[in-house]
Amino acid sequence: MRTPYYGADRVIGYLFFLPLLIVLLIFSFIPIAYSFFLSLYQIVLGLPRLGENFVGLANYEKLLEDPAALNSLEVTIIFVCFSTVLEVCVGLLMAVAINESFRGRGMVRAAILIPWALPTVVASQLWRFAFNDQYGIVNYVCFGPDIAHYKAWLADPFSALIAIMLADVWKTSSFAGLIILAGLQTIPDELYEAARVDGANAFQRFLFITLPLLKPSILLALIFRTMDAFRVFDLVFVMTQGGPADATNVLQFYGYKKLFDEGMVGIGSAVSVMVFILVLSVSIFYLNLVGTTLLKKKETLL
Amino acid sequence: MITRLPRLTSKLKRSLLTLLLLLAANSSIADEINFVMWKPDHPEVWDRILSDFERQTGVKVRVEIGPNSSTAAHALVSQKLKNADPDLDVFMMDVIWPSEFVSANWIESLYLFFPPQDQADFFPAAISACTIEGKIYGVPFETSGGLLFYRKDLLDKYGFGPPATWDQLVEEAEYIVSREQSHNPALRGYCGQFKQYEGLVCNMQEFLLGNRGKLFDDVERKSTIGFPANLHAVRYVRDKIIGKVASRGVLTYEEPESLHVFIQGHAVFLRDWPYAWEIANNPRESSIAGKVDIAVIPHFTAGDSASTLGGWQFALSTFSRKKTLAWQFIRYMTSPSVQKTFALETSQRPSRRSVYNDPEVLSGNPHFAQLREAFEKARPRPAIPLYPLYSSIQQRFYQAAIVYPDSSLEALAAEADREIDRLLKLMSEGKP
Do residues B203 and B402 lie in contact, with contact meaning Cβ atoms separated by under 8 Å? Predict the structure, then answer.
């Protein structure tokens, strides 16, 4: 039960709340509101004489009719689906592995965190080199020193998208792993002991104890990863610039080019707002899911 | 208290007065102009030339160094112009900017200062890139264009000369690669820049215009990508170049990657800009130093060679308060003698054709003879105010056409034409 605050407590409460409010206002609400405001105007930087005309939702209509924008939406959704699912799976394996006690666990834990700690731009350069058609390590692993058979991975629409996903999985699985590890450590050992007494083998213990109890942390990892994946930009910027033939032209990169290269401020802002709405609805969906599972858990405990 | 106030004010007044005087003195240095350029490769040469100018004219030049990338420099300069900054007098302008800057009324027409008879010594393509609706808006300072670099040793070995047509290039490349492959398995015939970016537009334009193609109808103000001659050239690139004489990797190459392949000895031919000459012939960076030569870009049997024009020009801001002084500076920097100094001491490619005939310049830079021939045949990219957007549409078309071997070129080109015509309509609304 929440107890209502009175008098000085109330003031102190607001004081504690104030810094967060200011930060959110300056760095989230105002930019989002401003983007939305801009997205209702036709503003072209290269044509200052055109002025700034209010056009209502015309920019959004244009987006929905632009095959390049729709392609970007499709690419983004494919990217989000495959990379987040893979990331959570790999993260789960990592978490289960580093939760066990074995010699050198500290080392392994640190090693797993390295990709996540690297700045994305650095990691993207690294992967761009790895997939290079002349000296890339991926080609060396596949074909050895026989350069004549080397493949240009980033020149093929299909393999380029896969390459970006792999780079993202490599980079962020450890983040999902960390969240799931936190969940793993809250599972009491007694449950496993009880299961062992009942004759459950390791796989059964994982399937019937670990996995159900991890559901909230897995969902949490999914939320974070999905929201992040929708906003993927740096990987594409460094590795492919949206190519080949728009195969990796994700929404954020499409919007960036519209705004900064082409000077279409209105349409570029409309793309940002669309991405915001997408991320927001996905997180509301997830939060509802988590909310209900958490509630159920509480009910069963009661 | 009250008695102290006047004292304070007078002190304040005095300091204010000094400040004002200082400011006035500063702005009354009528003989000072502000110039924005990129970071020079040879700052000591620039310093000397600038101080020569200052000594001769008494005009002081304040140099502001902007970013090196053309896109970033564009952002800086257009920001200043948008704000009508009076402290920008002269700046370096890329060949693709004039149309936009003129349509925004940001740069001054130079027709009074720079009449047609004075323009004759400059490369026609560079002059045409600076000419919008019949008026001249810039003075070319450095000219550049697409070139064909080739392995002279390999062509000589098999008795070939530099190819004049694309068919010859393909034939020579295939023959040489088939003979050399046993001891150089990584060798490919051709290398260029086909990634989805501005360089793709430059490379493809050379194929299209080299087939008597036409991108844009200036009279009707219409996009003409769908012309059969254009599509023939695009199909040629898709069927004969990408994945054939060139590896599919060129679809991911910008200039550095393609040059890297060439200087590793992994390509017979390379399409690149003049800067590649110094690097390809530098033994510390290149495994083929001294084995490289330059030719003009090949063409199709029906057409003529059409190198894509690049380079930098001087432009004069509309908001400058010192236009006459600024012009003095521009005239000095583009004079034959200064152009010659730059050519001799920095190997910069002059914009004046006469400098290429100078025996002193030629003996220091023997490859200038070929450069001149290529730049004479250079063709600018279409002058369209919203160039970046125009370029994006083209990039999308070219990549879709050459990445997917079974795409319908006609349908893709029709879509690109439609998009560009919509863009033109938007631009005509933006006119006064």
Answer: no
Question: Among B197, B396, B430, whose Cβ lies nearest the Cβ of A47?
Answer: B430
Cα separation, B295 vs B67, in Å, equals 31
- B97 → chain A, closest CA residue: A46
Structure tokens at B297: 């870009």
Output the domain CATH number for residue A79: 1.10.3720.10
Mutate to test the interface with A, among B70, B194, B196, B431 (most CBs of A within 10 A): B196
Asked if residues B126 and B143 have their Cβ atoms less than 8 Å apart, the reply is yes
Q: What CATH number was assigned to the domain covering residues B32-144+309-379?
A: 3.40.190.10
Distance between CA atoms of B173 and B374, rounded to whole angstroms? 21
**How many C-beta neighbours within 10 Å does residue A284 have?**
10
Amino acid letter, A92: L
* Cβ-Cβ contacts under 8 Å, B104 against chain A: 46-49
CATH fold label, B147-307+382-428 = D-Maltodextrin-Binding Protein; domain 2 (3.40.190)
**How does pLDDT run along chain B (432 residues), one tens digit per residue?**
344 444 545 555 566 555 555 554 444 456 899 999 988 888 999 999 999 999 999 999 999 998 877 877 888 898 899 889 999 999 999 999 999 899 889 999 999 999 999 999 999 999 999 999 899 999 999 999 999 999 999 999 999 999 999 999 999 999 999 999 898 988 999 999 999 988 999 999 999 999 999 999 888 889 999 999 999 999 999 999 999 999 999 999 999 999 999 999 999 999 999 999 989 999 999 999 999 999 999 999 999 999 999 999 999 999 999 999 999 999 999 999 999 999 999 889 999 999 999 999 999 898 999 999 999 999 999 988 888 889 999 999 999 999 998 999 999 999 999 999 988 888 887 654
Segments making up each domain of chain B, as ranges? 32-144+309-379, 147-307+382-428
Does residue A227 belong to any structural domain of this protein? Answer: yes
Report DSSP state, residue A240: T
Total count of domains within chain A: 1
Cβ separation B181–A148 shorter than 8 A: yes
Contact between B389 and A45 using a beta-carbon 8 Å cutoff: no
Instruction: Flag if B389 and A263 touch (Cβ within 8 Å).
Output: yes
Interface test with B, best of A41, A42, A43, A45 (most B CBs within 10 A): A45
φ, ψ of residue A6 in degrees (nearest 5): -130, 160
What's the sign of the alpha-carbon dihedral B381, B385, B387, B392? negative
Is residue A15 domain-resident?
no
Whether the complex's predicted ipTM is more than 0.90 is answered with no
Task: Please indicate, yes or no, if residue A86 is contained in any of the structural domains.
Answer: yes
| Owning domain of residue A113 | 41-301
The verdict on residue A172 lying in a domain is yes
